[in-house]
Amino acid sequence: MFALTHTSDVLNKNNIVSVVDNETETAHLLLEALHTISGIKVFKFTDPSMALEHFKTNKEDYALMISNLRLPVINGVQLLKTVKDLNPSVRTVLITEYEINDKILKEYNKNEIINSFMKKPFKHDEIISEVNNQVSYMKSINKK
Question: What is the Cα–Cα distance from 59 to 57, expressed in whole angstroms?
């Protein structure tokens, strides 16, 4: 399931941000927090397959995908790796409430599959700040 939350027609590319979390409540809370950022279109998904289909259709307009680690069918790392394979410039953030092996995280970070990691629980202002940073970075590299 996905929801469009920011309906202004922004003509700039790279303005789509999606949140993928199988926990409906968490996905909704992230959606509400990101709704406050102007200039982006925010989508939420509880099914990673639907998120991937949406990404494939809109991959040139994506700025960022935020994914929970634990998802049904494919995990968040696999999802973000597929996203990067399809469009390497898209920014990615992995979120989880579980401990992650630092060695694995560093490897994915080194290979630029995961651009940032956030451990749950986090505050609204933390996720808003992270999204602003990632979207700003995306826009800055596209100006070059």
Answer: 6
Sign of the CA dihedral running 89, 10, 44, 31:
positive
Q: What's the token pair of residue 123?
A: 């505050």
Burial grade of 52 (CB within 10 A; 0-12, 13-18, 19 or more):
buried
pLDDT digits (tens, 9 = 90+) for 107-131: 766 678 899 989 888 898 999 999 9
Domains: count for the chain: 1
Structural domain of 116: 16-142
In this prediction the pTM is 0.86
One-letter amino acid at 12 equals N
Q: Which tokens belong to 34?
A: 């990101």
- Tell me if 1 is assigned to some domain: no
Classify residue 2: in a domain, yes or no. no
